[in-house]
Amino acid sequence: MKPPAHMRSHRRRSGGQRWDEHNSTRQAQILEAAVALIEENGPTAEISIQQIAERAGLARSVVYRQFDNREDLDAKVREYILDHYVAEVESLLVLDPAKTAEELFHEVMRRVVSWASEHPHLYRFGQHGPVHGHSTEETSLSIGRHRVAETLWQQFSSWTGMLAIDVEPYRPLVYGLVGLVEGIVTQYIGTPEAQRPDQETIARMLTSSAWHLFAGHAADRGYHFDRSANIAETLAKLFADAAAQQD
After folding, report:
1. Euclidean distance between the first and final Cα of the chain, in Å?
2. Is domain 1-66 classified as CATH 1.10.3230?
3. How deeply is 49 buried, as exposed, middle or buried, from its count of CB atoms within 10 A (0-12, 13-18, 19+)?
4. Cβ-Cβ contacts under 8 Å for 209 (sequence gap 6 or more)
5. Domain 69-246 has CATH 1.10.760
6. Does residue 101 contact residue 231 with C-beta atoms inside 8 Å?
7. Residue 103 · residue 234 · CB < 8 Å
8. What is the value of pTM for the model shown?
9. What is the pLDDT of residues 162-181, one digit of tens each?
10. CA distances for 192 relative to 35, 46, 196, angstroms
């Protein structure tokens, strides 16, 4: 005896969901295997589908079934690398009232420099070629810059919005800052290790650059910030100044 129609439909949906999860798991295995091989062999190495399949513990035919072609696989590898890199940076773009603005900048810069230093082959691989879900004119570098800049802008504009400070004209500077960071980091990891300064030196230089850009433009607007004051103290002063102007 057949089960009722609504039960058959539910079974079909459940089976489809399990199949989607199965495919998702296999795709993750393949992408992780491809990333590991790029880490080991470099961004320009010829890595075959067979190598990726063996590293993932799967048959080569399974890899072919999961991706349209080799270009599709490479584009999804770039997306995978980009997502992990951006997630690490964005996780630090959180307002902590107990920290100074400079400390917040430094945490982000230190993580960007260390990630690129720890994964130079992935960093370079992501800079060339299309990324899944984006136009062929865009690279991981431009996409990542846009995503980080947008997150940074949303954070910054939400803080200034509470104070009724119009910062919209400064929006391009956020993109400029992210571009500056990426340019310096790209040059840094492209320098032979024996000639590089240590990571902390680069992170400190980037932090200082970000601070001077922020504080300099703020000073032009009449806002003078104490570099040693934490964010809670800075916001309290800004609120007090805003209240005094209204009285």
Report:
1. 81
2. no
3. middle
4. 177, 180
5. no
6. yes
7. no
8. 0.80
9. 777 888 898 999 999 999 99
10. 23, 23, 6
